[in-house]
Amino acid sequence: MRGNPLTLVGPELKAGDQAPDFSVIDSGMKPMHLGDTGKKTRIFSVLPSLDTPVCDAQTRRFNEEAAKLDGVDIFTVSVDLPFAQKRFCNSFAVDNLKMLSDHRDVSFGEAYGTLIKELRILSRAIFVVGPDDKIKYVEYVPEVGDSPNYEAALAAARS
């Protein structure tokens, strides 16, 4: 973060790996696991907090792209409380994404290697998971303040 190294907890996943299960909650406070996300291709857009400019931009960009993608579901995962996620979506007309909160157990962060130990937030990352629950694309963004490679993630989701 800002050139200072931080510790990521969990494995470094790669394309071809089986997508790990996780336990998060959705905007209705309902527990969600990988199996609850369906059998379409899924993009998991992982970010530190919706209250930052890059996270805001990432979420809005994927919201726009979700409207154009057939057969792909997009999930935003952060440790923001479900109430904050819902407020953000309502404030900025984000209605094409599904929001998942990892605030309780940081289960997603630990399973996908995105939990920043020192801050208990998630690092910026993108995971594209196929209908077979195999990871098709992974990007761990090295600097928290940088944007992910949207085009590469979207191309993987379309393939």
In short:
The chain has 159 residues and is α+β, with helices and mostly antiparallel strands.
The shape, in one word, is globular
Distance between the termini: 32 Å
CATH class: Alpha Beta
Corresponding CATH superfamily: Glutaredoxin
* Total DSSP helices: 4
Query: Would you tell me the overall average pLDDT?
Result: 93
Taken together, the total number of domains comes to: 1
Radius of gyration: 14 Å
Low-confidence blocks of residues: none
The helix-and-strand class reads alpha+beta
Biggest sheet: strands side by side, in what order?
Answer: 3-2-6-5-4-9-10
**Known CATH architecture:** 3-Layer(aba) Sandwich
Strand content: 15-25%
Number of strands: 10
How many strands, what sense, and barrel or not for the largest sheet?
7 strands, mixed
Provide the CATH topology.
Glutaredoxin
Order of helices and strands: EEEEHEHEHEEEEH
Task: Write up this protein.
The protein is α+β, with helices and mostly antiparallel strands and 159 residues long. It contains four helices and ten strands; from the N terminus they run ββββαβαβαββββα. The chain has a single domain (8-27, 47-158), classed as 3-Layer(aba) Sandwich (Glutaredoxin). The strands form two sheets. Strands 3-2-6-5-4-9-10 form a seven-stranded mixed beta sheet, with helices on one face. The protein has a three-stranded antiparallel beta sheet with strand order 1-7-8. The longest helix has 14 residues, at 53-66. The termini are far apart.
